[in-house]
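Friendly challenge for the regulars: who can give me the structure tokens for this chain first? No prize, just bragging rights.
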Amino acid sequence: MCCCCGSAIAHGASFTLLVLVGIFIVVGWAGADSKGAVWGASQIDYDVILSNNATSKCEENYFWGLTQYTVQIKSCAIILSESEKTFSYDGSDCDQDYCDPCKNAGGVIVFFITASFLAIVGVMAYIVYILRQQASEQEAERGISCTKDRQLLSLVLTGVCIALYLTIQIWVTPCQNEINDFIEDSANSRNANYESTIAGAYATVFTGWILALIAAGNQCCYAKMGQRNVVVRNSANMGGAPVYDAQPVRAGGIQVAQAVPVEEGKNPRTGEYAL
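First reply, four minutes later:
Bragging rights claimed.
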């Protein structure tokens, strides 16, 4: 089997990786709101002095999604009008420094992961098409087109990798950084302990980016290996069919193989005739 078509194993490996990438992207999608998987999480622990001078422990949790965030207050021994409330970054009640950066970041991230998901579905469908072609055609019939297939898939997956990389960078800067500054200032004003970090949805998209890099590298590697001379020979025992030898020619600056007929009994490498 020719190296460029790389066996079904190479394509199957890419397909499996892309299935995982697609799943991780869906998890990232789920982080659009703040009820499921979230992109960031923060917590502030502080004390509240009650009317009888007793101290009550309070825990303030923030769950940051792409389009909205939820604030949850619990473990306070005081009466609160609302213990949990969800805010939209573009809402009139969101007036903190992180609102605009996170609103813009969330919109761009949703666009990038949507485009990446559609591209991955397209690549997976094309891989299935290639595998079916390989099963129904002779390797020699695919020839250089197989290398072009891999080059195309590698190019598309490189675009996916760039989009996912921009996604994870855009969330951190400036959105997560603004969130961290807000949580730090809020905690310091109450002499409280705090923690603010990225969360599950971010981690899954980051993992998806790594797997997409591996899949793109797999396609690119075999595409380069496929740019070799393809030698096609038919046995003289098969109906006396002519023998062909691959001769390198230039096409658009790329060296490819061209089948050239060889006289019967002539060694195509040495030019000598068999006695």
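Helices lie at 7-30, 99-136, 139-142, 144-189, 200-225. Residues 1-5, 139-144, 223-259 have pLDDT under 50 and may be disordered. Your move, everyone else.
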